[in-house]
Amino acid sequence: LPTELALLPMVESAYNPEALSVAKASGLWQFIPSTGKLYGLEQNAQRDDRRDIVASTAAALEYLQRIYEMHGDWHLALASYNWGEGAVGRAVMRNQAAGLPTDYASLNMPNETRHYVPKLQALKNIIAQPELFGIELDTVENKPYFTLVAEAPTMDLATAARLADVPVAEIKALNPQHKRPVIRAGEGGAQLVLPSHAVDTFMSNLSNRDADAAPAAGAPWRTYTLGPKETLTTVIRRFGVTEWRLRRFNGLSPTAKIGPGTTLLVPDENSSLSLDGAGNAEEAPRLGVDKPKYKRVKRNGRWVNVPVATPSGNKAVKPAAPKKKAAPVAKKKAVVPVKKTATKKPAAKK
């Protein structure tokens, strides 16, 4: 493939693996959900492989090769990558029917696609001869920066960073596909990506680590792998965590069933932290096993949510009784003063 395709993510995402477009395209190569699934990029509650820097690059190169073979022209292939192969194919057929040329410059296309190939060409020119544009580029060593560690067990990102002796931010940057702060083993190629210089340190520390060791000081979670005959209830009883918080931490729906061999992220029982959809820490209410349920009740002409008792026995908080409106006080009628008329005194009797 043309070497300058390595610059295409700069046009697509500015090399940001967590970039997300309004059309829900994600990752370095900006795959939409349907195309990502077509090329084996798994997307679920735990991870989004469109953000995997290794898997998404392999998928993008396979896709680019296919659309090049479809058109036989790299300019048309790149237009298809941006606009869609179907749209480019229809534009080519329209020109053919009108007896017009079918090259990239001759097609009627959106401005974004019209400027797509020139942007890539401009980047190629700048990288090839930066001095012509008054730009000084940093030197990059010609050796791999990261290494895939396929043997790594399931663990949270903080533990991986501690074992590799690198900042957590660097581990997150190299493993952005994980929606939860945990890297799970045995999930169709999900692997831990580490800086090459840290691999030996990581493997050495890993061999001396207890698989279910307590989390590092200050960590709000730990990992736990279900053993034979263990279920979600086992974890709830062992660590004293509520089912609602455990499912929320792991992105599990209320009906999702798990069994032996599943590794869970278990929140610390003394922490009030939960995780949002992006794997970031957030405050969560300390509830019982079930989240309180509510029912709609009409009061004083308005519909309000009133908590009710849950099946697990959580007592709902009794809402304060609405204040009764005071009876309207009858207004006193204004008294109109009556003018006194002067009366003549009766004449005194002689």
Mean pLDDT: 81
By secondary-structure content and strand pairing, the structural class works out as: alpha+beta
Cα shape: globular
Q: Spans with pLDDT under 50 lasting ≥5 residues?
A: 276-292, 310-319
- Main beta sheet: 2 strands, antiparallel
The side-by-side strand order for the widest beta sheet comes to 1-4
- Rounded radius of gyration (Å): 34 Å
Distance between the termini: 143 Å
* Helix-strand topology string: HHHHHHHEEHHEEHEHHEEEEE
* Beta fraction: 5-15%
Helix content: 25-40%
Count of helical stretches: 12
Total beta strand runs: 10
Compact description:
The protein is 31% helix and 12% strand. It has helices spanning 8-13, 33-38, 55-71, 74-83, 85-97, 111-114, 116-128, 157-164, 168-174, 199-207, 232-239, 243-250, and strands spanning 146-149, 155-156, 182-183, 192-195, 221-225, 263-267, 273-275, 281-283, 293-299, 302-308.
Short descriptors:
globular, alpha+beta, two-stranded antiparallel ribbon, 12 helices, 12% strand, 350 residues, single chain, 10 strands
Structure, explained:
The protein is α+β, with helices and mostly antiparallel strands and 350 residues long. The protein is 31% helix and 12% strand. It contains twelve helices and ten strands. It has helices at 8-13, 33-38, 55-71, 74-83, 85-97, 111-114, 116-128, 157-164, 168-174, 199-207, 232-239, 243-250; strands at 146-149, 155-156, 182-183, 192-195, 221-225, 263-267, 273-275, 281-283, 293-299, 302-308. It has a two-stranded antiparallel sheet. α8 (157-164) crosses α10. The longest helix has 17 residues, at 55-71. The N and C termini lie far apart (143 Å). The model is unreliable at 276-292 and 310-319 (pLDDT under 50).
